[in-house]
Amino acid sequence: MGIIALGAAVAVLTGIGAGIGIGIATGKATESIARQPEVKGDIRTALIIGCAMAEATAVYGFVVALLIIIMLR
Q1: pLDDT-based confidence at 42, cuts 50/70/90?
Q2: Per the structure, how many domains does the chain have?
Q3: I want to staple 47 with a disulfide (CB 3.0 to 4.6 A). Which of 29, 39, 41, 56 is the partner?
């Protein structure tokens, strides 16, 4: 049972990478808007798409962790 928990924990670690990525992207987008406020809409659109992709990665990791726990139980 311990190896199953370890595998699930490793799968959930994708959330850390997604959180770091979203934080960096948000910071860079804020800097970009501060430098060029006239392209705020374009920057915001790209930021939202990028954040959605990063968050999807975290959700996939969570789903894999749940599958590991359920299937190998």
Answers
A1: very high
A2: 1
A3: 29
How long is the chain?
Answer: 73
The pTM is what?
0.77
Task: Say if residues 26 and 52 touch (Cβ distance below 8 Å).
Answer: no
Cβ neighbours for 61, distance < 8 A, ≥ 6 positions apart: 11, 12, 13, 14, 15, 18
Q: For residues 43 and 29, is the Cβ–Cβ distance under 8 A?
A: yes
pLDDT-based confidence at residue 11 (cuts at 50, 70, 90) = confident
Q: Give phi and psi for 42, each to the nearest 5.
A: -65, -40
Between the CA of residue 1 and those of 4, 67, 72, what are the distances in Å?
Answer: 5, 14, 9
